[in-house]
Design goal:
Blueprint lengths: L4 E8 L6 E2 L4 E2 L1 H8 L8 E4 L13 H12 L3 E3 L5 E3 L4 E4 L10 E4 L5 E6 L10 E6 L2 E9 L5 H13 L6 E6 L15 H7 L6 H4 E3 L5 E3 L2 H8 L2 E3 H5 L19 E6 L4 E3 L5 E3 L13 E8 L15
Parallel strand pairs: 1-4, 11-12
Antiparallel strand pairs: 1-19, 2-3, 4-8, 5-6, 7-8, 9-10, 10-11, 12-16, 13-14, 15-16, 17-19, 18-19
Helix pairs in contact: 1-2, 3-6
């Protein structure tokens, strides 16, 4: 019997990957605490800010520590010789982005997401920093993103075009897009310029806004709208859940949905109903990052070969 494969997909932007500028150390306890809110381990994890994870000055120690942290989250098994082994191990693929230390990283469970080829920053621009992986017999492009808002609308358009063209493949992209869409149910400030002024953050107008011909700064929704029009669907939109993905103090309380999981129309996958969630901190809980974690389950259709169902499935 051939079965579909349900995979847990998570997008998380932990601020600077837990790096503390004062101590110059990473606090991986924050990552552990945030992921502990999940009922089961992610099979695909998009981390938007892997700050200094692969810095040669510290010999990639943070990356090894993060992988150990991830492995420790889901318990251990003991083999016949009495050796303790983690139930889930991850392979990591860290992007290279010129001029940025907050680079995105992709973490996969190779039991169900088999890596085939990594495209570096300088290879085939539309595939740069993406992984070809075999999922349930299908070759799927995976990419973790952190769109750069500091270049304003021009750079947003460039990023939307470049990543949008990945829709020619079966693909899943996740992370911090730093932008929202023009969907009528999105929560968007009517006057972005005034919002920035009210919060004493006038310098952030161009990070998520664009100046209209009337001189009023509005939220720039063109980039996400254009990206989707290349042939993508958004998990939150498909679920009808427009919960904002940043905590109230971010960008002066911008309150928008900028962390997303995107799936190309060519991907043989569907969103498992009821599985999409924005992990909003409970009242009184400490906010460990400026962003909220987003998760969902995707069900990948089978091919002609035998398949397995991922362990710990609780969609």
């Amino acid at each position: 019997m051939f079965n579909p494969l349900k995979l847990h997909v998570v997008a998380l932007n932990l601020k600077r990957g837990g790096y503390d500028r004062d101590t110059r150390q990473h606090d991986h306890g924050k990552l552990f605490a945030m992921l502990s809110a999940l009922d089961s381990p992610p099979h695909i994890l998009f981390l938007s800010e892997c700050t200094y994870y692969t810095d040669p000055m510290i010999q990639s120690a943070p990356l090894f520590d993060v992988k150990e942290t991830l492995a420790s989250l889901w318990g251990y098994d003991e083999d016949e010789a009495g050796n303790t082994l983690p139930k889930t191990n991850y392979e990591a693929f860290i992007s290279e982005v010129h001029g940025s230390v907050n680079v995105p990283g992709l973490f996969i469970d190779p039991r169900y997401v088999r890596p085939l080829r990594w495209y570096g920053e300088t290879q085939r621009r539309s595939l740069a920093n993406s992984l070809t992986a075999r999922i349930n017999g299908h070759d799927i492009q995976l990419k973790s993103v952190h769109w750069n808002g500091s270049g304003g609308a021009t750079v947003f358009d460039q990023q939307a075009s470049q990543d949008g063209q990945m829709a020619q493949h079966s693909a899943v992209i996740g992370g911090d897009f730093n932008a929202t869409s023009g969907h009528p149910k999105e929560i968007v400030p009517a006057d972005w310029g005034q919002r920035c002024d009210d919060q004493g953050q006038s310098q952030k107008r161009s990070q998520k806004g664009v100046r209209g011909p009337n001189g009023v700064w509005k939220v720039n929704t063109d980039a996400i709208d254009s990206f989707l029009e290349h042939g993508w669907w958004d998990a939150g939109e498909r679920a009808g859940d427009f919960t904002v993905t940043v905590n109230p103090w971010v960008d002066g309380g911008s309150g928008m949905r900028i962390d997303r999981i995107m799936v190309s129309d060519r991907t043989p996958a569907r969103l498992v109903p009821g599985s999409y969630k924005v992990h909003v901190p409970k009242p009184g809980d400490k906010e460990l990052s400026d962003h909220r974690m987003v998760s969902c389950w995707l069900e990948f259709a089978p091919t002609g070969g035998a398949t397995r169902t991922a362990e710990g499935t609780r969609p």
